[in-house]
Amino acid sequence: MKPEGILKHLPWMLLGVLGASCLGVVALRRGEHISALWIIVASIAVYLVAYRYYSLYIASKVMKLDASRATPAVVNNDGLNYVPTNKNVLFGHHFAAIAGAGPLVGPVLAAQVGYLPGTLWLLGGVVLAGAVQDFMVLFISSRRNGASLGEIIKKEMGPVPGTIALFGCFMIMIIILAVLALIVVKALAESPWGVFTVCSTVPIALFMGVYMRFLRPGRVGEVSVIGIVLLVASIWFGGVIAHDPYWGPALTFKDTTITYTLIGYAFVSALLPVWLILAPRDYLATFLKIGVIVGLAIGIVILNPELKMPAVTQFVDGTGPVWKGSLFPFLFITIACGAVSGFHALIASGTTPKLLACETDARYIGYGAMLMESFVAIMALVAASIIEPGLYFAMNTPPAALGITMPNLHQLGGDNAPMIMAQLKDVTVHAAATVSSWGFVISPEQILQTAKDIGEPSVLNRAGGAPTLAVGIAHVFHQIMPAADMGFWYHFGILFEALFILTALDAGTRSGRFMLQDLLGNFVPFLKKTDSLVAGIIGTAGCVGLWGYLLYQGVVDPLGGVKSLWPLFGISNQMLAAVALVLSTVVLIKMKRTQYIWVTVLPAVWLLICTTYALGLKLFSDNPQLEGFFFLANEYKQKIAAGGADLSAQQIANMNHIVVNNYTNAGLSIMFLLVVYSIIFYGIKTALAAHKNPQRSDQETPYVAVPEQSSANSEGEVKVSPQH
Questions:
Q1: What domain range is 506 assigned to?
Q2: Is residue 590 part of a domain?
Q3: Which regions span the lipid bilayer (predicted)?
Q4: Helix 486-520 to helix 255-271 angle, to the nearest 10 degrees?
Q5: Using one digit for the tens of pLDDT, what is the confidence trace for 672-703?
Q6: Residue 620 domain-assigned?
Q7: Residue 34 region, left (φ>0) first, then alpha (ψ -120 to 50), else beta?
Q8: pLDDT by residue (tens digit) across 531-583?
Q9: pTM, whole model, 2 decimals?
């Protein structure tokens, strides 16, 4: 290499050394607390070096991106579905679509085994698997007129695997929506402050939609500022409401009540025009996502907090109370979206390729946005690791694992309030003793004081990750801006998470409705009409009914719905990513670029090993610590039979819930295995046939040069409509 070449790469080499050094400190220091800054600096260095070199290698060698090739947005520019969009604007749209609850919740749950395993997988997984998948699918779809994942599989492998893929994608979407909704329910149960604040986002979004549509069309920045001001006001006023002797108890709802409300809301919302509620909430969510994560990073740099969670805890053996399973394979399933997410393949093959102005922008948007999501996940892991470990486990462990029964907190406003508070104090003492016995010492006073600080009656039974992340956010922001109390910042964190989740719930329910209409339309053609209100109502009811059923079963699960639904979500999500990578491999072979298939084969094989092994354990293991689906179902069936008249009606109902939930999870797991391995079978069959064929056999659309008058270019210098 010439001296000028060395000088060109020297800064990147130094950055790589810095990142490796910081990662070494994170990995090798034991027996002492280290600063969270080591993780932040290491992560940024890894992301920058990976983007500079590995993504460039994929773009130039594997894909051979061509800036002179017209994208679907340029060829089909209709000002509606196909619109050449500024790459920075599209980056924001794409990031808002892919960054849902997964990168926030998965890493928080993964903190059970310590901060080190999660950090290593979040960095290695995104560089070698997650960002590669997003980038490859976006590239493949943009070369096929913006086709969806199912359509691409149908074109490249045949109609049978295409139909199987569409069905599999729909069922995975149902699991995703159920888990998203469960996180909201767990965050808002028994929380009048949270209920008021999150419910306020509905009229705020409706006002913004009307404002942009009729009052001040196209004034996105203006209405977003108004929306943010109203959101902040709703957080402050929520605190007033929560402490009101009438409204506080009136807005304290049980988790089942919130479940029914959320199901009804999702049904109505999915039938409303996009401009009325979904688009305005998307703007708000995007501003909050970027603002909170950047603010959290700046706060950590200023405060330089210590990581209080150990690098590795004793729960790597699979005995943890938050989720069951050993480090391999369950860590990778639990973290899910922050490292690799199959859900992204649905976005990268749906809306985004139809807005891509220049083919070379795919690197920045596909690979770059996934790196940004991974950074969100790193921030969530750090936020969970800087609070007291004892508090973390007290919040996230289901009551049954703590050996307690939670009192009815929604009765705090009645005559029984003194008795309820006495019961709450008793269960807090018991919970603190249980958590302390695990080696994470915490006093009942610390747990009660935290609840008081954040304006909640209790922090126990707050599984799901969202409340824990909100506490971490509150700790950082309160120290930076102490004028607002912890309660304000905690509910700001809850609102931040709920906004992204409700946006994803709205968008996901709409997508699920279209998928279901497409599937049912094969038998009843009328149902394929997406512009029909009747067909829309039927499709929406079917979609909401399916995820609503899973949500309800998760909410009433005595063992904690997160423990049963999150592994299923993680496994199905990672399996979808494996399917997308298998498709990418098949396309590369058909394009006669077999020498590069290691880029997609290695992550695909790893994901298939992890997910298949994890599903095998969850289905067939008789290890009580793993809480396998068939094992738990049979165990509780035997308890019901053996208990007989000695069991109360409530105990029998609880056990029946566990039996039904585990049989449901087992059935879904087997279905996912059949779907994934059917597609792999067809993929291998197609790849072998393509390998024997001396000619290219992929279904890429013919080359069309970018028109000279087109303003779309790699710098994104395009005219963008107000909606884009």
A1: 3-190+253-392+488-692
A2: yes
A3: 12-28, 34-54, 95-115, 121-141, 162-185, 191-211, 223-242, 262-279, 286-307, 327-352, 364-387, 488-505, 533-552, 564-589, 596-616, 663-684
A4: 50
A5: 999 999 999 999 999 999 999 999 999 999 99
A6: yes
A7: beta
A8: 788 998 999 999 999 999 999 988 888 776 777 788 888 899 999 999 999 99
A9: 0.88
